[in-house]
Write a structure and sequence with these properties.
This protein has about 270 residues and is an alpha/beta fold.
């Protein structure tokens, strides 16, 4: 079985478009979109998925499935809901402590990798019959590609790299397929947002920025309850409200603006 881990961003949309245009040498049997929660994913990603990806795939006879994490004892708890559980000590997302890098991506592991692998195992993947997992990494980010998934029932492949396509090529094929430019795929509160992305959210999507600020306050309260160092949603070591009250005081960065494609295993 050939599967593609679909994140809803530029690269994965390009792979879908290539298959629809008949330009993908090895088409996929199914595209798997692991939704961490409609209250967690960027609203633009969810809107594009339902208004463009799904009807486009149906029109071209391509199978695409939306997966949701199933929680024991909790009815399909979203990442947003999990982050508000005050009794949980460990914070699920890669938040920042002062002077330190981001924490582990438990969100990627629990809401992406395990969800997709569970579906694959339930649908026949095994050591003797491994499933192919396509990932949307283009040649300009080839350093993120890895040769092994570390699972005997899963084989990784990178169709965009095999075709020598970079991000600009992805935009071109999406346009040729008749699709509008998709948004970056990431949770709207993702700590990997760059300075530019946070400023854009504050200036152009103030309702989302207010929700990010409110979530950060919850995370700081959780840290205080459990006797941990403060953890922030940005790399600047202060709350978002303070960090982005004066943009000129924030150093520029060239880090990722979101969990693009395989950065979050999608």
């Amino acid at each position: 079985m050939r599967t593609f881990s679909f994140g809803g961003g530029v690269q994965s949309t390009a792979v879908l478009a290539l298959q629809a245009l008949g330009e993908l040498p090895k088409p996929y049997d199914v595209y798997l979109f692991s939704n961490v929660g409609n209250d967690s994913e960027d609203p633009e990603t969810i809107s594009y998925f339902h208004n463009h990806h799904l009807p486009f795939a149906e029109k071209h006879g391509i199978r695409i499935i939306e997966l949701i994490k199933e929680s024991r004892g909790r009815e399909n708890e979203t990442l947003w809901e999990q982050l508000h559980r005050m009794e949980v000590k460990s914070i699920q997302i890669p938040s920042y402590r002062v002077g330190k890098g981001p924490g582990g991506r438990k969100c990627t592991r629990d809401y992406k990798i395990r969800v997709v692998r569970k579906w694959q195992r339930q649908n026949g993947s095994s050591k003797d019959n491994p499933v192919v997992m396509g990932l949307g990494i283009s040649v300009d980010e080839i350093q993120r590609a890895r040769t092994s998934s570390r699972h005997e029932d899963q084989i990784l492949e990178y169709p965009l790299i095999d075709l020598g396509m970079d991000r600009d090529d992805c935009f071109e094929v999406i346009k040729r397929a008749g699709l509008p430019t998709p948004p970056r795929s990431a949770c709207f509160f993702c700590p990997f947002h760059s300075k530019k992305a946070w400023i854009d959210q504050k200036e152009n999507r103030p309702e989302l920025f207010a929700k990010s600020v409110a979530l950060e306050k919850v995370l700081l309260e959780r840290c205080e309850i459990h006797g941990k160092e403060p953890e922030y949603l940005s790399r600047y070591g202060v709350p978002l409200e303070e960090a982005f009250s004066n943009y000129g005081n924030i150093p520029d960065d060239d880090g990722p603006e979101g969990c693009e494609e395989a950065s979050c295993f999608t």
